[in-house]
Write a structure and sequence with these properties.
alpha+beta, 5-stranded mixed β-barrel, globular
Length: 199
């Protein structure tokens, strides 16, 4: 877990919001209803301490082991429910879980990760998304509501977060830096569209 640590990036201590099947990407939003004890505690701590938390998926749900890479998020909205919360999260940046402490709530020391410069790689990814959206007109309106940045990379992150791929594939995309993520999603979108059109 310590490999590639950069002392110039300060670590943050954040409550962890564990989500079994969801993945939140930077510059994207996610709405969820949470009722698990660890998730409710993470929201309550975030409400009292700057409204930031770390969203991480489970590597193994039976043991409670979390993925090493998650996303720092802002708690944009929350509403109390009888057994939990309805929340909206805005993704800020990816982060590596350095140390995880479980004392009722799950807390983590997190190292923010640079996205890397997508360079020209975002172009083919956005073009692939445009082709996919052309075949799914209702998707464009939905993605436009979810976008939190005018940057082209926001479209790539939205594609990674919302398109019909497995949770494990989504996590691999989150673990990739921006250039690699662009490459993977552009190939994946074209393969998905080709598969849909052949059925």
């Amino acid at each position: 877990m310590d490999e590639g640590t950069d002392a110039s990036r300060p670590h943050l201590l954040l409550p962890v919001l564990p989500l079994p099947e969801a993945c939140l990407f930077p510059e994207s939003s996610l709405q969820a209803v949470v009722s698990a004890i660890a998730a409710v505690q993470a929201v309550e701590i975030a409400q009292r301490s700057g409204r930031r938390l770390l969203v991480a998926g489970y590597r193994d749900l039976t043991t409670g082991q979390l993925h090493e890479i998650g996303t720092i998020a802002t708690l944009a909205a929350d509403a109390q429910l009888p057994d939990g919360f309805s929340i909206e999260l805005d993704g800020v940046s990816r982060a590596r879980l350095v140390t995880v402490v479980r004392a009722g709530a799950i807390m983590a020391e997190a190292e923010p990760l640079p996205e890397g410069d997508a360079g020209d790689q975002w172009g083919p990814a956005v073009e692939a998304l445009a082709r996919y959206i052309h075949a799914h007109a209702d998707l464009r309106t939905f993605l436009e509501r979810q976008r939190r940045s005018a940057e082209p990379m926001a479209w790539v992150n939205l594609a990674c977060q919302h398109l019909p791929i497995t949770a494990s594939a989504r996590q691999k995309l989150l673990e990739a830096d921006a250039p690699d993520r662009c490459l993977k999603i552009s190939r994946g979108l074209d393969a998905l569209l080709k598969k849909e059109q052949s059925t």
